[in-house]
């Protein structure tokens, strides 16, 4: 075999090996886009109701993420509440789940939501007491237990958390005890994972489809800002 033929065979084999290596090299991970993250969130829910004439109107409902999912937030929706008389005892994250405890003066229904991120790298999430996260971590959502405030924090893959607000005037005393809806929109490129209303009585607090806004159902009177926490993933 001539040296020219041997050289041609060697070059051909080299190209084959290089192509095989290129095909087996994993692609670099791209930053998470809001749409991609929203599509990777599954909403798990659980519900319960109090029948008319029950001896107790207390409910405790827990919605849980699956073992291969990460809890990033939660919410609730109480319906058929008499004259918005709902007493929110607790709403908080724990053990990859979200629990809500309520009471009332009559029958009602309670649905609880757990927002669960699937199929992505770990956020290094942890639940801490108080409003502040450890150094280097950012808050995904806040909760309140019967002992105090807790915060679900993420140590990685969160670029920033900003606050959005909208002004609401509640007039339930003048409109036949009708509840009112407040929606806080997050900026483009962020996801709404938490919200809070410091006025009135909160009967529902949850993310809208696509996590572009946080929606609350409120009863009572007064005026003020209601808030949403808007998260940017990285």
Account of the protein in words:
The chain is mainly beta and 234 residues long. The chain has one domain: Proprotein convertase subtilisin/kexin type 9 (Jelly Rolls, Sandwich), CATH 2.60.120. It is built from 2 helices and 15 strands. The chain has a 6-stranded antiparallel β-sheet. Strand 4 and strand 5 form a beta hairpin. It is globular and about 50 Å long. The chain starts with a helix and ends with a strand. 35% of the residues are buried. The N terminus is likely disordered.
Number of domains: 1
* CATH C-level class: Mainly Beta
Annotated CATH topology? Jelly Rolls
Neighbour order of strands in the largest sheet? 1-6-3-13-14-11
Euclidean distance between termini CA atoms? 57 Å
pLDDT < 50 runs, ≥5 residues: 3-30
CATH superfamily: Proprotein convertase subtilisin/kexin type 9
Q: Kindly report the average pLDDT value.
A: 87
CATH architecture: Sandwich
In terms of structural class, how would the helical and strand content be classed?
mainly beta
The radius of gyration is 25 Å
Largest sheet: 6 strands, antiparallel
Helix count, DSSP H or I runs of 4 or more residues? 2
Helix content: 10-25%
The total strand number stands at: 15
Order of helices and strands: HHEEEEEEEEEEEEEEE
Q: Kindly estimate the percentage of residues that lie in beta strands according to DSSP.
A: over 45%
What is the molecular shape?
A: globular
């Amino acid at each position: 075999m001539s040296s020219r033929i041997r050289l041609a065979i060697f070059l051909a084999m080299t190209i084959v090996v290089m192509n095989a290596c290129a095909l087996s090299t994993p692609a670099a991970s791209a930053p998470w886009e809001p749409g991609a993250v929203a599509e990777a969130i599954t909403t798990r829910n659980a519900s319960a109701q109090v029948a008319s004439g029950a001896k107790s109107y207390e409910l405790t409902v827990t919605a849980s993420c699956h073992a291969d999912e990460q809890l990033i937030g939660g919410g609730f929706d109480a319906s058929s509440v008499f004259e918005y008389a709902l007493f929110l005892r607790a709403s908080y994250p724990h053990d990859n789940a979200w629990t809500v405890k309520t009471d009332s003066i009559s029958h009602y229904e309670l649905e609880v939501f757990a927002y669960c991120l699937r199929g992505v790298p770990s956020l290094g999430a942890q639940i801490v007491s108080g409003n502040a996260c450890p150094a280097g971590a950012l808050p995904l959502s806040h909760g309140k237990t019967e002992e105090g405030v807790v915060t679900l924090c993420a140590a990685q893959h969160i670029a920033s958390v900003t606050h959005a607000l909208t002004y609401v005037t509640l007039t339930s005393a003048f409109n036949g005890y009708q509840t009112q809806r407040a929606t806080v929109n997050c900026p483009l490129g962020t996801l709404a994972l938490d919200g809070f209303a410091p006025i009135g009585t909160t009967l529902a607090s949850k993310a809208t489809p696509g996590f572009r806004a946080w929606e609350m159902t409120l009863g009572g009177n007064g005026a003020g800002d209601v808030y949403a926490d808007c998260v940017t993933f990285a």
